[in-house]
Predict the structure of YbfB/YjiJ family MFS transporter.
Amino acid sequence: MNSLFDKSNNAAILLAGILAIVVGIGVARFAFTSLLPFMLEDYLTITNAGILASFNFTGYLSGAVFSVFIKDINAKVKYFRIGMFLSVVTTLVLATTTDETLWLLSRVVAGFGSAMVLIVGGAIVMVKLNFEDKTKAMGIHFSGIGFAILISELISQYILKDGNWSDAWLALAMFAFIISFYSVYILSFDKEIKQEAIKHKLSKSIFTPYVILLILAYFTEGVGFVVQGTFLPDIINSLKGLDGYGSVGWLMVGIAGIPSSIIFMRLAHNYGSVNIIILAMALQIIGILIPAISTNMYLNLLSGALYGSTFIALVALFMHLGGKLAGNNPVVLMGSMTAAYGIGQVGAPLYSVALIEYFGNYNSTLYLTAFIVFVGILLLVYAKKIENKM
């Protein structure tokens, strides 16, 4: 047991990384999705929900771009801790007030905190792990996103049996506060680490047509991620005969998400990253379209599973591929990819709510989102042609 409190133990480092994701992504980001149907009943309108989601992603985008420029590992530890603190405090805001301005502010700040936890925290985990090959270990780390959705959903549902959504936010904030101590303790260093900062010249030559197509495809995946990531439980609840199944659908997202990056990363190793990215995006399109064309309960639960198994894996796949292509310039390429994905995330909730308000259901939003992800697949097919000519 002592070894789990040893800061250099690989199992402790991975556990701390996963628990950090549960706080920064599960509680500060995705709990909003699982509680959305209940908040829509008596507080939020669908338009406000979309705006809050967009604000959250704006905060995440700013944090993601900011994180690219944090070079020093000691500074990374500091910003990771700030991210953990912000994740807890912004959750507390949702539990204790219904002031709309405070909610908007808290969602922006929560987004920034999530980026610090996922991106900067992931970088600390990478530095601290002592494995020969860290790819598999990072697959385990990213499985934390599935755990994060699952755990935050189970806590929410348990509290909602007797309480309301603000009680659920309070319980989530308290839970996040308690587990954050372990992550903050393990993901730190006993003394200042002297790291020689290697200065790489910023080279524009990295942005070949092939890389630009990849970045554009990742933008479409940012769009593909958002609609279900924001509305999935409500989408399922809105279907005839499926009211109340939304939370089961969201549980499926978490369960399917846990092994997904490990499985897809292995497939990418065997069959090539771009091929497996295309496969994952095709599966995601099927998942997006199911609620628009069927009210079958099992198919709609499958829709949740397809979403959970693809969106986490796609982030891992694109980032891994970007890292390989970037060579000595990971910061510039990772920053550009993350920004493209983030812009997709910020825009998608806004067109979603406009279409939902206009048509009175989710179908048009789902069709448009599926089409945008399909354009991403076409871009990747074209990128492959360019690559073969190189």
Remarks:
- The chain has two domains: 1-190, 203-389.
- DSSP finds 13 helices and no strands in the chain.
- The first helix runs from residue 10 to 42.
